[in-house]
Amino acid sequence: MAESVGTRALVRLDLRLDRLRLGLLIGGLAAFVAMVCSSFDSLYPEAADRQSFAADMSASGAIRAFYGTVYGTSIGALTAWRSSGMTAIAALVAMFLVVRHTRGDEESGRRELLGATVVGRQAPLVATLVVALAAYVVLAAAITLVLLALGQPFAGSLALGLAFAGMGWVFAGVAAVAAQLTVSSRTANGIAAAVLAVAALLRMGGNAADANGGSAPWPVWLSPMGWADQVRPFAGNHWWVLILFVVATAVLVAAALVLSTRRDVGGGLLPTRPGPAAGASWLRSPVALAWRLQWGSLLAWAVGLGVFGAVIGGVAKSAADVVRDNPDLADMIERLGGKGVISDAFLAGSIGFLGVAAAGCGIQAALRLRGEETSERAEPVLATSVPRLRWAGSHFVFAFVGPAVAMLVAGVAAGVAYGLSLGDGLDQVGRVLAGALVQLPAVWVMAGVAILLIGAFPRWSSASWLALIAVIVILFVADLIDGAQWLKDLSPFTHIPKVPGGSVQALPLVLLTTVAAALSTTGIEALRRRDLG
Amino acid sequence: MDDVIEIAGLRKHFGPTKALDGLDLTVRAGEVHGFLGPNGAGKSTTLRVLLGLLRSDGGTARMLGGDPWHDAAALHHRLAYVPGDVTLWPGLSGGEVIDLLGRLRGGLDPKRRAALLERFELDPTKKSRNYSKGNRQKVALVAALASDVELLLLDEPTSGLDPLMEAAFRECVEEARQEGRTALLSSHILAEVEVLCDRVTIIRDGRTVETGSLAELRHLTRTSVRAELAQPADGLSDLPGVHDLDVEGNRVHCQVDTAHLDDLLRHLAAAGIRSLVSQPPTLEELFLRHYSGDDGADVAVGAGAAAGAGEGGDDG
Hints:
The complex is a heterodimer of chains A (533) and B (316).
Chain A: H1 7-43, H2 47-59, H3 61-67, H4 75-83, H5 87-108, H6 110-115, H7 123-149, H8 154-181, H9 185-209, H10 218-221, H11 224-230, H12 241-261, H13 286-316, H14 327-336, H15 340-374, H16 378-382, H17 388-422, H18 429-437, H19 440-456, H20 463-477, H21 485-490, H22 506-529
Helix pairs in contact in A: 1-4, 1-5, 1-7, 3-9, 5-7, 5-8, 5-9, 7-8, 8-9, 8-11, 8-12, 9-13, 11-12, 13-15, 13-17, 15-17, 15-19, 15-20, 17-18, 17-19, 19-20, 19-22
Chain B: E1 3-14, E2 17-28, E3 32-36, H1 43-50, E4 58-63, H2 72-76, E5 79-82, H3 94-105, H4 110-119, H5 133-145, E6 151-155, H6 163-178, E7 182-186, H7 190-196, E8 199-204, E9 207-213, H8 214-219, E10 222-229, E11 242-248, E12 251-257, H9 261-271, E13 273-279, H10 283-291
Parallel strand pairs in B: 3-7, 3-8, 5-6, 6-7
Antiparallel strand pairs in B: 1-2, 1-4, 8-9, 10-12, 10-13, 11-12
């Protein structure tokens, strides 16, 4: 037990440091679930309406790929179905929390300060896991309570709460293992995020193939996100699926604890190589430095969005499968312009999701500048003859170019995959790519919000992520709320033309680009005037 | 151009905290200027104002004939800076950082770079995350010293170095002085300051309390005098500048303001001196007196109130 002495004090420390983040997570997700539930309640009060809605949503593989398979038509079951994507947010928060308190503290040297006190070797890891696992139990309780308050049955409410908790648990475990492998917390986050992306892809693929709503196909069972669906809250409540979460978490935590004893504090299991003795000749400008620091994550974004783009393009054809079994609908669609319309609508909608993800890339790139400032790495650069605006621009340029490249890659990948599935070769690339590129003005608005915060309200820079989460929530629920057009209008992505399929109007694109430029200019001007550090 | 840095009445506050409260500092061309003060006195804040990272709230600051805020980029061609707490990009090697910073400043001398790497025994291939504090400091020192600049701003540059490397650093600063460069050296290592600096400025709570050459500063403080006399001396306690007087028969022990040493000795000589020990204040006593908390505090050096030597703090 000497290995974990001091855990109790560290638990208190972690709670002190993360009370705001955990409060936001628990309150935010519970509020989200409550919002979805009451929207279904007011939008589809009749069982018959819900049945036809559920039938529409299950008809096409492409829609199932995104929202999951509908397993029941009660209000609770529809709430569980529509909220399931948010389990990814629960997983992300768990990941960042664990990495920050383990590898993050080691990297910054805080771990050394703690380690010299009466704190066991395993205590920081154990304390973080205790906090993370307990926080997700509280989350489960909060979700159960809000659903009960909305008149939902207890069993289903609890099952949905535990499905969220399960995702948090497993990814706390994934992050704990990733934190043992590398010396950089950024890489540890990247490894854990890649695991989450694979889990999301397996779930998408499995759900797309799951036409009958019976036993789920195998890819779903490889993905913790798929398990969360398979708990089937309000639709049978498969309690035994929760065992998968518990077992996986236990295995991952045990692995992390074993791995952590096999390495030095501050060291990793993956080897670090020596670097060059001299700077490459291109490493001679602030932009070159920013590129040197950012290319890894920009590449990861481009590859990630490219893979998701290919999957979207690959399943888009099946979006029109609904027509096969429904002659009335087929007639209507023929009048509207043929099967292509449904696939186009699916492509336009799902590329919108990619746009929101690309906004994450832009925000991350912009926030690098703030990271340079707070870590005091900006100081030596600004003590050379680099003007402040050139330094700021060196990182901000990647907040615009990075997501543009990622969307380019995603658009081409989606277009190629769609064309291949239709047997059209590369004919579809232009149309689909256009759909990806029209997202950029909205993506840049989000980057502009980050730049404005960094310049004018530096202490609140990370609130940029809250802005992104707000956009995601709007994307998921706004269409379920009556008269919520004003809410939808708050998101820049609402104003993006639906391409392919729709027509491109220049005005909203020009306006959004102008807004992005105004936000960025204001932020940069504020940055020019304020104290740094 | 005679003064490289001219600061007068500089003010800077962070919210309610006054970091600089009327600071004065003059650094002459070609000198190595010691910049001293207790932790939190405002040394790093002053350097950050000089670097154009912080905007001053009042007073004037000129550096190399320009305005540190408005002309930052142009001035930085001509100076190099070593931060007290060196943080580097964990994924870049030391060699990469040195070259990058040198090029951003407008170029560095490869021969000098190689010589400095050897002198400081620094392995440039290590990734920055694997460097110790001292080695990170060496990276910053090599990057700064390898450039041909007029002014060096050094913020506690040796706090992580071993004595051997500290000696190497002193040589480098000495060479810089011989080449006619100017240096502002913030440091807590008094021996280093004593050896290297032509003049020093002592600050406390954001104000200048003392400035001048070491000889001048010594002059403003007290000398300890211990004497054995032929007969008891009268009227010693009435002499100006005599403190902590302790008379035991023919033996006298006291502190005297160095400016009044003449008077005291004349008085003692009148009584007939059998033996005399006089000790000038050590540098350490000098600093301890200024570093200590309130104006009246006395840090076991018998220095008493700072009033006698407080003329340095002539800020408005």
